[in-house]
């Protein structure tokens, strides 16, 4: 089993250093999704999309979130 709690903590620490680090928000999205925290997953994805709206990973993650929520 992956240590999602530690990954969330590390991603949050990375964002304290660089709040515009879209990849850290993408990592948070995946971690939150994996632990079933869909609200925080949605927030993390939204922030990643805001920082880098052309990143193809954001589009894939949006589809993934939509499929999980429906």
Q: Look at the structure and give the CATH class.
A: Mainly Alpha
Low-confidence residue ranges: none
Overall pLDDT confidence: 96
The Rg value, from CA coordinates, equals 11 Å
**What is the H/E string?**
HHHH
- Number of alpha- plus pi-helical segments: 4
The biggest beta sheet reads:
none
The tally of domains stands at: 1
CATH topology: Serine Threonine Protein Phosphatase 5, Tetratricopeptide repeat
- CATH superfamily membership: Tetratricopeptide repeat domain
Q: Tell me the total number of β-strands.
A: 0
Percentage of residues in DSSP E strands = under 5%
Helices and strands in order, then pairings?
Elements: H1 4-17, H2 22-34, H3 38-51, H4 56-69
Helix pairs in contact: 1-2, 2-3, 2-4, 3-4
Model description:
By secondary structure, the chain is mainly α. It has one domain: Alpha Horseshoe (Serine Threonine Protein Phosphatase 5, Tetratricopeptide repeat), CATH 1.25.40. It has four helices and no strands. It has helices spanning 4-17, 22-34, 38-51, 56-69. α1 packs antiparallel against α2, α2 (22-34) runs parallel beside α4 and α3 (38-51) runs antiparallel to α4. The longest helix has 14 residues, at 4-17. The chain is flat and about 35 Å long. The relative contact order is 0.15. The mean pLDDT is 96.
Write a compact overview of the structure shown.
The protein is mainly α and 70 residues long. It has helices at 4-17, 22-34, 38-51, 56-69. The chain has 4 helices and no strands.
């Amino acid at each position: 089993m992956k240590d999602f709690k530690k990954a969330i903590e590390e991603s949050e620490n990375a964002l304290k250093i660089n709040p515009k680090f879209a990849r850290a928000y993408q990592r948070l999205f995946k971690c939150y999704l994996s632990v079933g925290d869909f609200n925080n997953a949605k927030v993390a994805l939204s922030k990643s999309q805001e920082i880098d709206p052309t990143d193809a990973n954001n589009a894939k993650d949006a589809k993934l979130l939509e499929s999980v929520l429906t």
